[in-house]
Write a structure and sequence with these properties.
Number of helices: 2
CATH class: Alpha Beta
Order of helices and strands: EEEHEEH
Helix content: 10-25%
Length: 100
């Protein structure tokens, strides 16, 4: 679906439920304290906003270890067909409320 400097997002199928999900894979350098703080902060924010109707729900998290220095976080999110940028691009002239 998308790719960043340290992460990739894939459309995937949850083998336990059969549902389509968004799988974000983040590579974390365990020796980089700024990277660890950033990932931790993002996870805390996602958990705090877990029940907000306009925030994609984090459904699961798996950590895998490549070696002593790097690990990968596999974040499982509910899947949405459209991104916010898609919605804004196709909704010219429509006014959204602050909560939308």
């Amino acid at each position: 679906i998308s790719r960043g400097v340290r992460s990739e997002v894939h459309k995937a199928k949850d083998t336990a439920t059969g549902r389509i999900v968004a799988l974000k894979v983040v590579q974390v350098d365990r020796l980089d304290s700024a990277s660890l703080r950033s990932v931790t902060k993002q996870l805390i924010i996602l958990r705090r906003l877990d029940h907000h109707p306009n925030i994609i729900k984090l459904e699961g998290l798996v950590i895998s270890s490549k070696n002593k220095r790097y690990c990968k976080l596999h974040l499982v999110f509910e899947y949405m067909e459209h991104s916010l940028s898609d919605l804004l691009a196709t909704s010219r002239g429509i006014k959204f409320s602050e909560t939308q």
